Structures are given as C-alpha cells and as structure tokens.
Amino acid sequence: MPYSPDIVEELNILARFNLDTTQAGIKVHANAGPEVISATQRLFDKGLISQSDGGYLTHRGIEAAEHAQNLMGIMKTG
Fold first, then answer.
1. With contact defined as beta carbons under 8 Å apart, do 38 and 6 qualify?
2. Which residue, of 6, 13, 41, 58, has the fewest CB within 10 Å?
3. Listed residue (1, 2, 5) closest to 38, CA to CA
4. In what order do the strands lie in the sheet with 26-27?
C-alpha cells in the first residue's frame, strides 16, 4: 500500500523534531499551510505530540519520529 499524502505530511512533521533532546519542540503557526496544520492536528489526535499546534513528542511520538527519520536516512543513502 503506498503512502497517502496525509501520511507523507505527517512524516514530514515528525522529521522536523530534533531527536537529540526532549527539550526541543516545534510550533506550527496559524499562517502555516493547511496541510501542515492538518497533519499536526492528526499527530496530536494520534497521541504522538503534546499539543495540537506542535509542542513536544510524546513517548510514542519519539518512537515514531525515530522510525521516520531512520527511514529518511536510508532513502537518502539508497
């Protein structure tokens, strides 16, 4: 099954998090693109981030972001 555009956008949001520290979050501003705002809300609804406009990764979110960022690294070196 191919990735849907919604999933790709969620992966792009997860790729923005700095995994070297749990003290760095992200903030999605109201003037961001609607696809970014929607993806961020979906990640919050799934329990992967702490706030609907970004915030910090949850424990589950850290795991998801690690997988997303590892996959990105594999694909770039392919």
1. yes
2. 6
3. 5
4. 26-27, 54-57, 49-51
Distance CA 11, CA 27 (A): 16
Locate 34 and state its tokens.
């609607």
Q: Could you report the per-residue pLDDT of 39-73, keeping only the tens digit for each? A: 999 999 999 999 999 999 999 999 999 999 999 99
- Rounded to whole angstroms, what are the CA distances from 1 to 4, 19, 46? 9, 28, 20
Query: In 3D, which of 41, 35, 65 has the Cα closest to residue 53?
Result: 41
pLDDT tens, residue by residue, 24-34: 899 999 999 99
DSSP annotation of 56: E
The alpha-helical segments, DSSP class H, found in 1-78 are 5-15, 34-45, 59-77
